Amino acid sequence: MTTRTLMAAVMLSVVFLGAVGSAGTAFAAYLGNVGAGGETGQNTLEEILEIQQRRIQAVQDNPGAGSGTPYLDADGVVGATVISAAVFGGIAGALFLRGRSGKYAAMGRG
Predict the structure, then answer these.
(1) N or C: which end of the chain has fewer CB within 10 A?
(2) Cα–Cα distance between 74 and 78 in angstroms, integer?
(3) What are phi and psi of 62, to 5 degrees?
(4) Which H/E stretch holds residue 38?
(5) Cα–Cα dist 57/63, whole Å
(6) Taking all residues of the chain, what is their mean pLDDT, rounded to a whole number?
(7) Distance between CA atoms of residues 66 and 76, nearest Å
(8) Phi and psi of 24, rounded to 5°?
(9) Whose CA is closest to 4, among 12, 15, 17?
(10) 102's torsion region: left (phi>0), alpha (psi -120 to 50) or beta?
């Protein structure tokens, strides 16, 4: 078997298995199970809509409460961004400084 044929077979199998593996998500809209007697399972569309309507009503009743997302907290959006920027920036800076010197640095650059 040639390399080209083998690579084509591997690529087709990856594509096919990826398509078959994601077929279960196509039925995500049908959340509940309906029995023969008409009884429904947990998390049906009607139950989820009711929960969402209660959430909207709670937000309208308390306009000063905000969205509930702590932006400036360490657990919030900006806090997590600053922490991750400091960590990854520190690692990148250490690698850049380390890469300017050493055994494999190009001559005349460092």
Answers:
(1) N
(2) 7
(3) -125, 75
(4) none
(5) 10
(6) 75
(7) 14
(8) -70, -25
(9) 12
(10) left
For residue 9, give the 3-state DSSP assignment.
Answer: helix
The length of the chain in residues reads 110
Tens of pLDDT, residues 50-99: 988 998 898 888 877 766 666 667 777 788 888 899 999 999 999 888 88
Give a three-class secondary structure readout of 69-109.
CCCCCCCCHHHHHHHHHHHHHHHHHHHHHHHCCCCCCCCCC
Nearest in space to 82 (alpha carbons), one of 74, 92, 90: 74
How many Cα neighbours within 13 Å face the side chain of 64?
A: 0
95, amino acid identity:
L
Over residues 42-49, mean pLDDT = 75
